[in-house]
Amino acid sequence: MRSGVKQRACKVCREKFEPVRPMQTTCSIPCALAWGVKAAEKKAKREALAEKKSDALRKKALKTRSDWMRDAQASVNGWVRWRDRDQPCISCGTFNAIAWHAGHYYSTAARPDLRLDPANIHRQCAQCNLFLSGNLIEYRKNLPARIGQAELDRLDGPPTAVRATVEVLKAVTAEFKAKLRQEQRNALEAA
Question: What is the Cα–Cα distance from 3 to 105, expressed in whole angstroms?
Fold first, then answer.
């Protein structure tokens, strides 16, 4: 052992060795080759991850307003289904359904201003939402019990002509995704 030279552990085989060069990290040529292969694999993974991130950013930049609207609607609907998870179908009152939807009282085509309004959206069985076109007569009967008469009067009021911008849709998406995550986390902690 040379004086003043501290032994190191090889990065590949973990054997103790006495370095010959100041930045030497491996004990032998085979270990150095293995270390080089490992480093090349890590670099390739980093580059693939960076490319994947840049692709995601590019795709996000290419999103249209309708894409953002679809995302916002999906996040609001997911939150509504979670909010009403202990409630029966607003139209028929069943607790047993094959699939649950987030049904709109006023359709998205009839009242686009209420499309993302949680007071206008409630848990509904697939049978009522798809096959009975929302089962709106029964929906209307049960709506005041869920949201109150004042809120129902607001929904019945005149439509607003405000068109949601992409920034608003992004904010709505983020808000309802965060709400859903927080409520699910709270439910887990309470259980």
Answer: 84
Count H helices and E strands in the chain, helices first: 6, 4
The per-residue pLDDT for range 102-116, each reduced to its tens digit, is 999 999 988 999 999
Contacts 24+ apart (CB under 8 A), 183-189: 183/79, 183/82, 183/83, 184/82
Task: Say if CB 140 and CB 102 are below 8 A apart.
Answer: no
The per-residue pLDDT for 162 is 79
- Scan for tokens 């849709």, then name that residue: 169
Token digits of residue 83:
């909010």
What residue type is assigned to position 4 of the chain? G
* E-strand stretches of 53-177: 100-104, 121-125
Q: What is the length of the chain?
A: 191
State pTM to two decimals: 0.69
| Average pLDDT taken over every residue of the chain | 91
Interatomic CA distance for residues 139 and 154, integer angstroms = 16
Asked if 7 and 18 touch (Cβ cutoff 8 Å), the reply is yes
